Hints:
This protein is α/β, with parallel strands linked by helices. The chain has one domain (about 5-45, about 70-355): Aldolase class I (TIM Barrel), CATH 3.20.20. The chain is built from 15 helices and 12 strands. The chain has helices spanning about 5-15, 20-25, 35-45, 90-100, 115-120, 135-145, 165-170, 180-190, 190-200, 220-230, 235-245, 255-265, 285-300, 315-320, 330-360; strands at about 45-50, 65, 70, 75, 105, 125-130, 150-155, 250-255, 270-275, 305, 325-330, 375-380. β2 (about 65) and β3 form a beta hairpin. The model has no long low-confidence stretch (mean pLDDT about 95). It binds ligand FNR. Ligand FNR binds near residues 128, 274 and 331. One of its GO terms (molecular function) is L-lactate dehydrogenase (NAD+) activity. InterPro entries: Aldolase_TIM (IPR013785), Alpha-hydoxy_acid_DH_FMN (IPR012133), FMN-dep_DH (IPR000262), FMN_HAD (IPR037396), FMN_hydac_DH_AS (IPR008259).
Amino acid sequence: xxxxxxxxxxxxxxxxxxxxxxxxxxxxxxxxxxxxxxxxxxxxxxxxxxxxxxxxxxxxxxxxxxxxxxxxxxxxxxxxxxxxxxxxxxxxxxxxxxxxxxxxxxxxxxxxxxxxxxxxxxxxxxxxxxxxxxxxxxxxxxxxxxxxxxxxxxxxxxxxxxxxxxxxxxxxxxxxxxxxxxxxxxxxxxxxxxxxxxxxxxxxxxxxxxxxxxxxxxxxxxxxxxxxxxxxxxxxxxxxxxxxxxxxxxxxxxxxxxxxxxxxxxxxxxxxxxxxxxxxxxxxxxxxxxxxxxxxxxxxxxxxxxxxxxxxxxxxxxxxxxxxxxxxxxxxxxxxxxxxxxxxxxxxxxxxxxxxxxxxxxxxxxxxxxxxxxxxxxxxx
Length: 381
Ligand code: FNR
């Protein structure tokens, strides 16, 4: 195989290198995976306006997300169990993002802890919070994120109940993973993955072990995690979090104009239009198809970001054209990480940057901050 040229190439390589249960964990969507597919398909339905004979020199992709300078408007989305795609995965991805000049968001459900990431980065990263029933635990997490100097708190609002991914159940994936002889065989046939894991010192959920009440070993951790997602979570909790955090706040998982208005009312700095990468409500619309309505509803009150379905720099450009000030990639960087470690995350970011740059030029624009709906030839949304 030649060097990966696209995110699809990185995906194919990751499929070969990462044990099936972890590749599937990253790759899958909930139930029929209809929303997961729509996320990608709906980007493809948007057509760009080709322009010619305009000056294309000195192009810039530099922008800002929540007032933070970014080398391009793309952040790494929070993803759980990232350290199972590649040893020390969260630390490698955080370093790659820092060197590239884009934000890295650490998930509550990461393998490496907040402190692990702080020990390998010199610039502030972002921290994603799942609001658990155990509020003392949440307070502790918020305080740790503050101590680590995190520059933004991303509160995920769309996971009060877990959407079922059939592949994970069929593969016997639990949190944390319990390995059967079949899994061990699958891992043994992935030598690169095994060698990496043999070197890593980090196992289990770095942000949770040792901090949650009554959690002392892996099996108590597993049941604690399962019962901790909070079905009572409400906008009042977001207000409480905002007060305690007292810093930049982003609300993730907004897919409806009414919810977007409620999010803007909280005074948060940004929302992420997201359906969790098609992993929660199967049957929900794609993120990109909801973006224009949400921008119309709240774009003058709050910064609007988007994730779910971005697989190329063209997709980022389309999201920006429809009003997103920033975007996030989940699977594209996970595929890169699983395929080639830190180098693969860098490659994923480089692929996206190059595609975005060339597409912007061919649409007759030189500066990402001037990209707007005028570059769209056809958009069904
Ligand atoms: C996620 N996502 C996610 N979101 C979150 O807020 N906290 C989390 O721990 C996770 N975990 C997670 C694991 C994996 C394997 C994936 C693929 C996704 C959702 C993530 O932040 C983001 O919304 C989607 O990944 C965006 O869609 P794409 O880019 O993967 O299509």
